[in-house]
Structure formats: C-alpha cells, structure tokens
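Can you make up a polypeptide sequence alongside its tokenized fold?
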Amino acid sequence: MKIKRFRSDRGGEYDSNEFNKFIQSLGIIHETTPPYSPSSNGVAERKNRTLIDLTNAMLVSSCASSNLWDEVVLTACYILNRIPNKKTNLTSFELWRGYKPNLSYLKAWGCLTYVRLTNPKRPKLGAKAATCVFIGYATTSKAYRFLDLDSNVAIESVDTIFHEDKFPFKLKKDGSHDFTKQNDFEPSSSISSHFQNQENMDFEPRRSKRTRKERDFGSDYYVYNVDGEPLSFQEALTSSNSDFWKKAINDEVDSLISNKTWKLVDLPPGCKTIGCKWVLRKKLKPDGTIDKYKARLVAKGFKQKEELDLCDTFSPVTRVTSIRVLIAVAIIHNMLIHQMDVKTAFLNGDLHEEIYMDQPEGFVMLGQEDKVCKLTKSLYGLK
C-alpha cells in the first residue's frame, strides 16, 4: 500500500523541515486544511471523536483519573484497530497484517491485577506479587502495561493474574483501599442472618402523593397548529393555502430549470437513483405573521455511497472573527455595508460526480416517465 497524499491540519508537528523532507523523499503530497476548518478533514476528525468517546467511557466506567488519558487513548486505538469495519467486514489489523487478530488477550481497562515480582525484586518473605491496575498494551513487545499502586510506576509484564470484576479506582472512590485481604474474612452468623431476614421481608414501594396535572400549552399553541406546514406534496395541494404553495413550488422548479440543475437521461446499467422530496416552510415576520411561502426540492443524500457518489463532505462557513474584522474596517474608513441574498446560492456549484435522481413529484415529464435526472449542479440534501 503506497501513500500518495497526506492530509493534515496546520499543526506544528506536521510542519517541521525534517517531516517535510521525509514525505518529499517518498513522493508524498502534503495537503493542509484551511485554519480552523476541521470539517475539511472529516475522516480524521471523526476518528478523533470516536477515540475520545471510547476514552471518556473507559475513564468514567473505571473511575480513573483524567491524568491517565494518554494510556486510555492508546488502548482505545488498539481496540479500534481490532473491530471489523462495516464496509469490508474486516479489521484494520487484518488489512495491514494479512491475518486475523487474536482477541483472547483483551482485558477490561482499569481492572485489578496481581503482577508477579521478578526474582531480583521478590523478597524471601512477604508478597510475591505487586497490586496493580491494568492500563493498556505494550507497543514494542507482547506484554501488558500496569500501574503499580504502591510505587505509582508503570510496568510491563505477562506474568499476571487479572480480576476483571474489580476496579481499584472505583473501590478507592467508595472508601475501600484493601485489595489483598478482601477474601480473608467471612461475615459473622449474626450479621448474615440479619441481612437474610431483611431480604425475606416484603416492602411496600413508596408512592408519591403529588397529584399529576395535565400540561397546558395555551390556546395559542393549538391555534398555531390548526393550519401547519404540509409534510408532503399532495398535502400542500389539498390544504387551504394550496394556491400559495403551488406558486412557491413553481418558483422553485423555475429556478432549478433556469439554473440547468439537471438534464433528463436514461439510467445507465448498474446505476441507482436517489430520491427527492419537497420541503415546505412558512417564513414568518418578527411579529409572527406570514412573510412568504417557501418550497425547496431536497435530494435524499443519505442514499449516496461513499467513493461512488461523493468524496469529501464539508461546507465552508465564514468565521465570526472575519465578519467582525469586516465591520471594524468599514467603520474605520466610514464605509457602508450592503447585505445581499442570492436565491438558491448553493445550487450554483458544479457537480463532478455522476449522480442520478428521480424526477420531482408533480413534475414528471409526459412521455419521458422512464427517464431520470442527471444532476449537473448541486442540490440541497446532497452530501
């Protein structure tokens, strides 16, 4: 597997002379994303989110300190590389190494372990093992990593006993510190009989005496929903405001046709179409009255297949800082700022992928019912 392009943010760790010389020697093109635009590198950012979610889950479940976050992130990455991918049903480990990983040695992070002391450190009298916490897997050898609770030092070993049902950090939080003598005592007969008697008793659950009151949203809520927004094309045509909705729909279609958003073609063999639907909304004024009726044709982009119908999925957005700088410059030079709204601005972008869509409901061309729309411009809903 040869790497052709390497995309990263503008972090200093990717901008050193040594690193640039290294990738240039291998013929790799280094792409950098614009500042403060994590959406431009969506695949890597989503993987970071998955790692952080796993890290947070392991820290919370084991009640461990956030100081161990680096060990948890390495463990989360180790586990993710051994989880099958939905697309290929293979693990990253298997794709890289060529054989299936062994999952029998995976252990619960943060569990109690007893690591056998090596001969130079083991005294003739006293403990033969150190009380530790499992914190991950060694990167340079086939061993586990542990945190010694007595010396607070990380060690690596394979000669250990795991107790995956006990978590020292959680026990410490509850006030219990003794891990070596938990099984050395038995409860007295009086105490055990006392709890057994309590277990056999029937308790009546306590019920709330508060009376439940039906929630009142007010009369305005019901009046507002008497004539709401239609959920479909047919519902818009049969509503009391059908004339307004028809005009809004016709305006949207005229705008799409004048922009040459699609052209009717025969569906090529082996290709599939994505559907579309009408989204109908009422635009309101500040006083709550209706400003206009808005209709928008939206493609069902969730049916698009990655690497077939799309490559990158991101939408550049102006930063608030840039807007503030613009306003400040205008004030300094005593300039006027004009705001402009471009109708269907998103639809001006050209499409380089071949995407086929069903003809819009209510606007199927007579005699060409079997044809589909090949999109040449961007459409709302596409990824």
